Amino acid sequence: MAMRPDFDTIDLRLIRVLHTVITERSVSRAATRLGSSQPAVSAQLKRLRALVGDPLLVRAGQQMQPTATAMQLLDPAAQMLRQAEQLFGARGRAARSGAFEAAQADALFRIAASDYLDPLFLPRLVAHLKRAAPGVRLELMPLTQDYDYRRALAAGAVDLVIGNWLQPPQELHLGRLFSDEVVCLVAEDHPAVRGSGTRGWSVARYLDCDHVAPMPLHPGALGVIDEHLQAAGLRRRIAVRASHFGLIPQMVADSLLVLTTGRLFCSRYVDRLPLRIVRCPLALPPLAYYQLWHELGHHAPALRWLREQVRDVARGLTLPRPPRGAARSMARDGAA
Prior knowledge:
This protein is an alpha/beta fold and about 325 residues long. It has two domains: about 1-70, Winged helix-like DNA-binding domain superfamily/Winged helix DNA-binding domain (Arc Repressor Mutant, subunit A); about 105-335, 3-Layer(aba) Sandwich (D-Maltodextrin-Binding Protein, domain 2). The N and C termini lie far apart (about 75 Å). It has helices spanning about 10-25, 25-35, 40-50, 70-90, 90-95, 120-130, 150-155, 195-200, 205-210, 225-230, 250-255, 265, 300-315, 325-335, and strands at about 55-60, 65, 110-115, 135-140, 160-165, 175-180, 180-185, 210-215, 235-240, 260, 275-280, 285-295. The radius of gyration is 24 Å and the shape is globular. A five-stranded mixed sheet has the order 4-3-5-12-6, covered by helices on one side. Strands 9-8-10-7-11 form a five-stranded mixed sheet. About 40% of the residues lie in helices and about 20% in strands. α1 crosses α2 (about 25-35), α1 crosses α4 (about 70-90) and α2 packs across α3.
Protein backbone atom coordinates (compact mmCIF):
# COMPACT_ATOMS: atom_id res chain seq x y z
CA MET A 1 0.00 0.00 0.00
CA ALA A 2 1.31 3.42 -0.91
CA MET A 3 2.21 5.72 1.95
CA ARG A 4 -0.26 8.56 2.44
CA PRO A 5 1.51 11.95 2.31
CA ASP A 6 1.72 13.77 5.62
CA PHE A 7 -0.54 16.68 4.71
CA ASP A 8 0.25 18.42 7.98
CA THR A 9 3.73 19.15 6.62
CA ILE A 10 2.48 20.73 3.37
CA ASP A 11 2.17 24.48 3.81
CA LEU A 12 0.81 27.15 1.48
CA ARG A 13 4.34 28.21 0.51
CA LEU A 14 4.93 24.80 -1.06
CA ILE A 15 1.75 25.12 -3.13
CA ARG A 16 2.89 28.55 -4.32
CA VAL A 17 6.29 27.13 -5.30
CA LEU A 18 4.52 24.36 -7.23
CA HIS A 19 2.35 26.83 -9.13
CA THR A 20 5.19 29.28 -9.82
CA VAL A 21 7.69 26.68 -11.00
CA ILE A 22 5.16 25.19 -13.42
CA THR A 23 4.04 28.55 -14.84
CA GLU A 24 7.58 29.96 -15.10
CA ARG A 25 9.07 26.66 -16.36
CA SER A 26 12.34 27.66 -14.72
CA VAL A 27 13.69 27.30 -11.20
CA SER A 28 15.72 30.51 -11.46
CA ARG A 29 12.80 32.60 -12.74
CA ALA A 30 10.52 31.06 -10.11
CA ALA A 31 13.03 31.99 -7.40
CA THR A 32 13.11 35.60 -8.64
CA ARG A 33 9.32 35.82 -8.71
CA LEU A 34 9.03 34.27 -5.24
CA GLY A 35 11.74 36.48 -3.76
CA SER A 36 13.68 33.36 -2.83
CA SER A 37 17.01 31.77 -3.77
CA GLN A 38 17.53 29.17 -6.47
CA PRO A 39 18.87 26.52 -4.04
CA ALA A 40 15.82 26.99 -1.78
CA VAL A 41 13.39 26.59 -4.68
CA SER A 42 15.36 23.58 -5.97
CA ALA A 43 15.04 21.94 -2.56
CA GLN A 44 11.29 22.62 -2.50
CA LEU A 45 10.93 21.24 -6.03
CA LYS A 46 12.76 18.09 -4.92
CA ARG A 47 10.29 17.74 -2.05
CA LEU A 48 7.34 18.28 -4.41
CA ARG A 49 8.66 15.61 -6.78
CA ALA A 50 8.80 13.15 -3.91
CA LEU A 51 5.27 14.02 -2.76
CA VAL A 52 3.78 13.80 -6.25
CA GLY A 53 5.89 10.93 -7.57
CA ASP A 54 6.62 12.81 -10.79
CA PRO A 55 9.55 14.93 -12.06
CA LEU A 56 7.16 17.86 -12.77
CA LEU A 57 9.76 19.67 -14.92
CA VAL A 58 11.93 17.93 -17.52
CA ARG A 59 14.54 19.28 -19.89
CA ALA A 60 13.54 19.66 -23.55
CA GLY A 61 16.50 21.00 -25.52
CA GLN A 62 17.66 24.23 -23.88
CA GLN A 63 14.43 24.70 -21.93
CA MET A 64 12.45 23.05 -19.16
CA GLN A 65 8.94 21.82 -19.89
CA PRO A 66 6.22 20.75 -17.42
CA THR A 67 5.11 17.14 -17.51
CA ALA A 68 1.51 16.10 -18.14
CA THR A 69 1.11 15.55 -14.39
CA ALA A 70 2.41 19.06 -13.68
CA MET A 71 -0.16 20.57 -16.05
CA GLN A 72 -2.92 18.60 -14.31
CA LEU A 73 -1.79 20.06 -10.97
CA LEU A 74 -1.66 23.66 -12.21
CA ASP A 75 -5.38 24.46 -11.93
CA PRO A 76 -5.89 22.83 -8.49
CA ALA A 77 -2.84 24.70 -7.17
CA ALA A 78 -4.20 28.00 -8.53
CA GLN A 79 -7.58 27.31 -6.94
CA MET A 80 -5.96 26.66 -3.56
CA LEU A 81 -4.00 29.92 -3.76
CA ARG A 82 -7.12 31.88 -4.72
CA GLN A 83 -9.05 30.35 -1.85
CA ALA A 84 -6.25 31.22 0.56
CA GLU A 85 -6.27 34.79 -0.77
CA GLN A 86 -10.01 34.97 -0.21
CA LEU A 87 -9.57 33.71 3.35
CA PHE A 88 -6.59 35.72 4.50
CA GLY A 89 -5.38 38.13 1.81
CA ALA A 90 -6.01 41.80 1.14
CA ARG A 91 -8.39 40.95 -1.67
CA GLY A 92 -10.37 38.68 0.58
CA ARG A 93 -10.66 41.35 3.25
CA ALA A 94 -11.68 43.92 0.63
CA ALA A 95 -14.24 41.56 -0.87
CA ARG A 96 -15.78 40.93 2.53
CA SER A 97 -15.92 44.62 3.30
CA GLY A 98 -17.29 45.42 -0.14
CA ALA A 99 -14.70 48.17 -0.73
CA PHE A 100 -11.13 48.61 -1.90
CA GLU A 101 -9.08 51.19 -0.07
CA ALA A 102 -6.41 52.00 -2.64
CA ALA A 103 -4.31 54.27 -0.42
CA GLN A 104 -3.89 51.53 2.21
CA ALA A 105 -3.84 48.49 -0.10
CA ASP A 106 -0.98 46.01 -0.21
CA ALA A 107 -2.40 43.95 -3.10
CA LEU A 108 -0.51 42.28 -5.95
CA PHE A 109 -1.82 42.97 -9.46
CA ARG A 110 -0.69 40.82 -12.37
CA ILE A 111 -1.18 42.27 -15.86
CA ALA A 112 -0.29 40.76 -19.22
CA ALA A 113 -0.12 43.40 -21.94
CA SER A 114 0.74 43.73 -25.60
CA ASP A 115 3.30 46.32 -26.62
CA TYR A 116 1.43 46.92 -29.90
CA LEU A 117 -0.42 49.87 -28.43
CA ASP A 118 0.97 53.19 -27.30
CA PRO A 119 4.51 52.67 -25.88
CA LEU A 120 3.68 55.28 -23.22
CA PHE A 121 0.65 53.36 -21.96
CA LEU A 122 2.28 50.92 -19.54
CA PRO A 123 4.70 53.49 -18.04
CA ARG A 124 1.80 55.88 -17.49
CA LEU A 125 -0.33 53.10 -16.01
CA VAL A 126 2.40 52.09 -13.56
CA ALA A 127 2.96 55.70 -12.49
CA HIS A 128 -0.79 56.23 -12.07
CA LEU A 129 -1.26 53.08 -10.00
CA LYS A 130 1.69 53.84 -7.74
CA ARG A 131 0.38 57.33 -7.08
CA ALA A 132 -3.13 56.09 -6.28
CA ALA A 133 -2.07 52.98 -4.36
CA PRO A 134 1.58 53.25 -3.20
CA GLY A 135 1.52 49.87 -1.48
CA VAL A 136 0.43 47.76 -4.43
CA ARG A 137 2.87 45.48 -6.22
CA LEU A 138 2.73 44.94 -9.97
CA GLU A 139 3.82 42.09 -12.22
CA LEU A 140 3.80 42.98 -15.93
CA MET A 141 4.02 40.12 -18.41
CA PRO A 142 4.27 40.27 -22.22
CA LEU A 143 1.81 38.58 -24.54
CA THR A 144 3.94 36.17 -26.55
CA GLN A 145 3.56 32.87 -28.39
CA ASP A 146 4.65 31.05 -25.25
CA TYR A 147 2.10 32.71 -22.98
CA ASP A 148 -1.35 31.11 -22.84
CA TYR A 149 -3.24 34.11 -21.49
CA ARG A 150 -6.61 32.33 -21.53
CA ARG A 151 -5.28 29.53 -19.33
CA ALA A 152 -3.50 32.05 -17.11
CA LEU A 153 -6.72 34.02 -16.57
CA ALA A 154 -8.71 30.86 -15.86
CA ALA A 155 -6.05 29.68 -13.41
CA GLY A 156 -5.84 33.00 -11.59
CA ALA A 157 -2.19 33.41 -12.60
CA VAL A 158 -2.94 36.81 -14.16
CA ASP A 159 -5.65 39.34 -13.32
CA LEU A 160 -5.96 41.33 -16.52
CA VAL A 161 -4.89 41.04 -20.16
CA ILE A 162 -4.59 44.12 -22.39
CA GLY A 163 -4.24 44.03 -26.17
CA ASN A 164 -6.05 44.12 -29.49
CA TRP A 165 -8.08 41.34 -31.05
CA LEU A 166 -10.39 41.15 -34.03
CA GLN A 167 -12.64 38.84 -32.01
CA PRO A 168 -11.77 38.57 -28.29
CA PRO A 169 -12.42 35.16 -26.66
CA GLN A 170 -16.12 34.85 -25.83
CA GLU A 171 -15.61 33.20 -22.43
CA LEU A 172 -13.92 36.32 -21.04
CA HIS A 173 -15.30 39.65 -19.86
CA LEU A 174 -14.05 42.60 -21.86
CA GLY A 175 -13.87 46.36 -21.61
CA ARG A 176 -13.13 48.40 -24.71
CA LEU A 177 -10.34 50.89 -24.08
CA PHE A 178 -9.95 52.86 -27.31
CA SER A 179 -9.85 52.60 -31.10
CA ASP A 180 -6.94 53.68 -33.27
CA GLU A 181 -6.70 54.49 -36.97
CA VAL A 182 -4.63 52.04 -39.02
CA VAL A 183 -1.69 53.73 -40.77
CA CYS A 184 1.67 52.75 -42.22
CA LEU A 185 5.03 53.64 -40.75
CA VAL A 186 7.91 53.88 -43.27
CA ALA A 187 11.36 55.40 -43.55
CA GLU A 188 11.35 59.04 -44.62
CA ASP A 189 12.93 58.12 -47.99
CA HIS A 190 10.54 55.23 -48.69
CA PRO A 191 8.86 55.30 -52.15
CA ALA A 192 5.50 55.63 -50.36
CA VAL A 193 6.42 59.23 -49.49
CA ARG A 194 9.26 60.06 -51.89
CA GLY A 195 7.85 61.82 -54.93
CA SER A 196 5.05 59.34 -55.68
CA GLY A 197 2.26 61.23 -53.89
CA THR A 198 -1.08 59.77 -52.95
CA ARG A 199 -1.90 58.26 -56.34
CA GLY A 200 1.32 56.24 -56.48
CA TRP A 201 0.80 54.60 -53.10
CA SER A 202 -1.72 52.02 -54.29
CA VAL A 203 -3.00 48.78 -52.85
CA ALA A 204 -0.89 46.82 -55.34
CA ARG A 205 2.29 48.66 -54.36
CA TYR A 206 1.47 48.30 -50.69
CA LEU A 207 1.01 44.52 -50.98
CA ASP A 208 4.22 44.21 -53.01
CA CYS A 209 6.36 45.88 -50.32
CA ASP A 210 8.38 44.04 -47.71
CA HIS A 211 6.37 44.19 -44.50
CA VAL A 212 7.32 43.77 -40.85
CA ALA A 213 4.76 42.32 -38.45
CA PRO A 214 4.61 41.08 -34.85
CA MET A 215 4.76 37.40 -34.04
CA PRO A 216 1.26 35.90 -33.72
CA LEU A 217 -0.04 35.04 -30.26
CA HIS A 218 0.01 31.34 -31.14
CA PRO A 219 1.59 29.32 -33.99
CA GLY A 220 -0.33 29.51 -37.24
CA ALA A 221 -2.47 32.45 -36.15
CA LEU A 222 -2.93 35.58 -38.23
CA GLY A 223 -2.55 39.04 -36.80
CA VAL A 224 -5.42 41.52 -36.91
CA ILE A 225 -4.15 43.19 -40.11
CA ASP A 226 -3.70 39.89 -41.93
CA GLU A 227 -7.11 38.67 -40.80
CA HIS A 228 -8.63 41.69 -42.54
CA LEU A 229 -6.51 41.10 -45.65
CA GLN A 230 -7.50 37.45 -45.79
CA ALA A 231 -11.19 38.38 -45.53
CA ALA A 232 -10.68 40.64 -48.55
CA GLY A 233 -8.88 37.92 -50.50
CA LEU A 234 -5.53 39.72 -50.25
CA ARG A 235 -2.12 38.82 -48.90
CA ARG A 236 0.96 40.90 -48.19
CA ARG A 237 4.58 39.79 -48.17
CA ILE A 238 5.86 39.66 -44.58
CA ALA A 239 9.64 39.77 -44.74
CA VAL A 240 10.26 40.12 -40.98
CA ARG A 241 8.35 38.88 -37.95
CA ALA A 242 9.48 40.31 -34.62
CA SER A 243 8.61 39.43 -31.04
CA HIS A 244 9.88 42.80 -29.80
CA PHE A 245 7.40 45.27 -31.22
CA GLY A 246 9.11 48.25 -29.63
CA LEU A 247 12.23 47.61 -31.75
CA ILE A 248 10.34 47.61 -35.06
CA PRO A 249 10.40 51.42 -35.64
CA GLN A 250 14.21 51.36 -35.71
CA MET A 251 14.12 48.47 -38.18
CA VAL A 252 11.75 50.46 -40.37
CA ALA A 253 13.91 53.60 -40.19
CA ASP A 254 16.93 51.68 -41.48
CA SER A 255 15.19 49.79 -44.31
CA LEU A 256 12.32 49.77 -46.81
CA LEU A 257 10.09 47.75 -44.50
CA VAL A 258 6.49 48.82 -43.96
CA LEU A 259 4.82 48.57 -40.54
CA THR A 260 1.02 48.67 -40.52
CA THR A 261 -0.42 49.44 -37.11
CA GLY A 262 -2.17 52.12 -35.06
CA ARG A 263 -1.43 55.82 -35.46
CA LEU A 264 -0.98 56.26 -31.72
CA PHE A 265 1.96 53.84 -31.63
CA CYS A 266 3.59 55.29 -34.75
CA SER A 267 3.23 58.89 -33.60
CA ARG A 268 5.57 58.33 -30.65
CA TYR A 269 8.54 57.63 -32.98
CA VAL A 270 8.33 60.11 -35.87
CA ASP A 271 10.06 62.87 -33.91
CA ARG A 272 12.85 60.59 -32.72
CA LEU A 273 13.67 58.60 -35.85
CA PRO A 274 13.76 59.35 -39.61
CA LEU A 275 10.25 57.99 -40.11
CA ARG A 276 7.02 59.09 -41.76
CA ILE A 277 3.40 58.11 -41.18
CA VAL A 278 1.50 57.53 -44.44
CA ARG A 279 -2.06 56.50 -45.04
CA CYS A 280 -2.84 52.82 -45.50
CA PRO A 281 -4.07 52.31 -49.10
CA LEU A 282 -6.52 49.69 -47.84
CA ALA A 283 -9.72 50.76 -46.12
CA LEU A 284 -9.08 48.91 -42.85
CA PRO A 285 -11.30 49.41 -39.80
CA PRO A 286 -9.71 50.97 -36.70
CA LEU A 287 -7.78 48.75 -34.31
CA ALA A 288 -9.80 48.06 -31.17
CA TYR A 289 -7.94 47.64 -27.88
CA TYR A 290 -9.51 45.83 -24.94
CA GLN A 291 -8.87 44.71 -21.40
CA LEU A 292 -9.95 41.13 -20.77
CA TRP A 293 -10.63 39.37 -17.47
CA HIS A 294 -12.10 36.13 -16.18
CA GLU A 295 -15.28 35.58 -14.23
CA LEU A 296 -13.07 34.61 -11.26
CA GLY A 297 -12.18 38.24 -10.61
CA HIS A 298 -15.25 39.89 -12.05
CA HIS A 299 -16.79 40.90 -8.70
CA ALA A 300 -13.60 41.47 -6.67
CA PRO A 301 -13.50 45.14 -5.57
CA ALA A 302 -9.71 45.35 -5.96
CA LEU A 303 -9.81 44.09 -9.54
CA ARG A 304 -12.78 46.25 -10.39
CA TRP A 305 -10.75 49.23 -9.16
CA LEU A 306 -7.78 48.10 -11.26
CA ARG A 307 -9.91 47.91 -14.41
CA GLU A 308 -11.24 51.41 -13.77
CA GLN A 309 -7.68 52.77 -13.52
CA VAL A 310 -6.68 51.03 -16.77
CA ARG A 311 -9.73 52.52 -18.49
CA ASP A 312 -8.96 56.03 -17.21
CA VAL A 313 -5.30 55.91 -18.29
CA ALA A 314 -6.27 54.60 -21.74
CA ARG A 315 -8.78 57.43 -22.15
CA GLY A 316 -6.05 59.93 -21.35
CA LEU A 317 -3.85 58.88 -24.27
CA THR A 318 -3.68 61.56 -26.94
CA LEU A 319 -1.83 62.04 -30.20
CA PRO A 320 1.08 64.49 -30.05
CA ARG A 321 0.61 67.69 -32.01
CA PRO A 322 2.44 67.66 -35.36
CA PRO A 323 5.29 70.16 -35.63
CA ARG A 324 4.56 73.47 -37.35
CA GLY A 325 4.44 73.02 -41.10
CA ALA A 326 3.98 69.27 -40.90
CA ALA A 327 0.39 69.36 -42.14
CA ARG A 328 1.41 71.07 -45.37
CA SER A 329 4.25 68.58 -45.93
CA MET A 330 1.97 65.63 -45.20
CA ALA A 331 -0.60 66.83 -47.70
CA ARG A 332 2.09 67.28 -50.37
CA ASP A 333 3.59 63.80 -49.91
CA GLY A 334 0.35 61.91 -49.32
CA ALA A 335 1.16 61.22 -45.68
CA ALA A 336 -1.60 60.31 -43.27
